[in-house]
Amino acid sequence: MLDNSAKPLVSVRDLKMHFPIHAGFLRRRVGEVRAVDGVTFDVIEGETLGLVGESGCGKSTCGRAVLRLYDITSGQIMIDGRDIGSVKQRNLRTMRPIMQMVFQDPQASLNSRMTVEAIIREPLDEHTTLSDAEKREKVGELMDAVGLNRRFAKRYPHAFSGGQRQRIGIARALALNPKFIVCDEPIAALDVSIQAQVVNLLEDLQEQFGLTYLFISHDLSMVRHIATRVAVMYLGKIVELAPREALYAAPLHPYTQALLSAVPDPDPEMAAAKQRIVLQGDVPSPANPPDGCNFCTRCPQVMDICRRIDPEYREVQPGRWAACHLHNDMSPAEVADEINAAQTAG
Question: What strand order describes the sheet that includes 28-44?
Fold first, then answer.
């Protein structure tokens, strides 16, 4: 979704992840939760794609589905030139080394009965034929890379702080030299003082090992710091995708505009001048989304067509994608003029 010369490492097309709802004595299927409902994006090799949105919008489910931790409902997932969307789980084993995940809660994702060395070594035991000495040396190198003292290798996770436990999880994800890592809110469970350290570590590791990230977060300020491009999700769908600076300077979708208006500004004068967009109502249930646009029940700029027709997710300007009727009838030149006018006014 960048220019034609950019090579996507990950390509996702019309990805759907629907969870069945069963009810009654016979547990018949009476509906489905549309956690991810037709998502399309690319992750370019070497970049960080930020995926943001409210809690419950489907961000984490999307990340796990891309790695095939779930059997997806439908869609296509290409990673490193291989279609893994329809591959059976047992046949994915050979692909696991190139795609890894860093989980949100480091305490829950680490086995409390295993030492740090055993946790980091486990992928090496499962997927490599290295000798014990080589594995010990590899574990030591990984601990060095994430800033952990090798002397702590025999300790258990409970002996570490939250930030240190997350570093253990990152070391485990790096063990098999992956190309693509999904970071599922890796800083959400950490103290604010530690969050920046972990994000800076991820950036350093990306440069050192040539990694590609899908960085999932609800912290828009942190996403602005780390992401190359940003995709915004609402109720299972991507409503806008754009390069970072373009999206933060002049968001196209009303939902993105509302999200960014809520980001605190460190400058008191700028914060006082910022116009806050307060959305009315609650997020609809993904089991019963509204007709037309998913955002029509809360959109401050809603039109009649929004309640009837789901807007097409389309490229409204080179590199900028949006699913909104406000822009579907505009030419790319008109959109560019509107963005320039907004940037000049700002």
Answer: 28-44, 8-23, 74-79, 82-83
Phi, psi of 147 (to 5 degrees): 85, 30
Measured in degrees and rounded to the nearest 5, phi and psi for residue 237 equal -130, 150
Asked if residues 8 and 44 have their Cβ atoms less than 8 Å apart, the reply is yes
What residue type is 323 in one-letter code? Answer: A
* Per-10-residue mean pLDDT, the chain, length 346: 67 96 88 95 97 93 96 95 92 93 90 95 94 96 95 95 94 96 92 90 95 95 94 96 95 94 76 79 90 94 91 92 84 50 47
Phi and psi angles of residue 218, each rounded to the nearest 5 degrees, phi first: -105, 0
Q: Which amino acid is at 208?
A: Q
CA angle at residue 132 from 129 to 137, to 5 degrees? 100
Ramachandran region, residue 54 (left: φ > 0; alpha: ψ -120 to 50; beta: rest): beta
Q: How far apart are CA 150 and CA 167, in angstroms?
A: 13
Q: Confirm if 212 and 9 have CB atoms less than 8 A apart.
A: yes
* One-letter amino acid of 151: R
Specify the 3-state DSSP secondary structure of 1: coil
- Whole-model pTM: value is 0.88
Yes or no: say if 83 and 76 are a contact pair by the CB < 8 Å rule. Answer: yes
Task: List the beta bridge partners of residue 232.
Answer: 52, 240
Cα separation of 323 and 196, whole Å? 32
Separation of alpha carbons 110 and 173, rounded Å? 12
Provide φ and ψ at 211, rounded to 5°. -85, 155
Tell me what pLDDT residue 338 has: 46
Question: Is there a contact between 48 and 230 (Cβ–Cβ < 8 Å)?
Answer: no
* 3-state secondary structure at position 316: strand
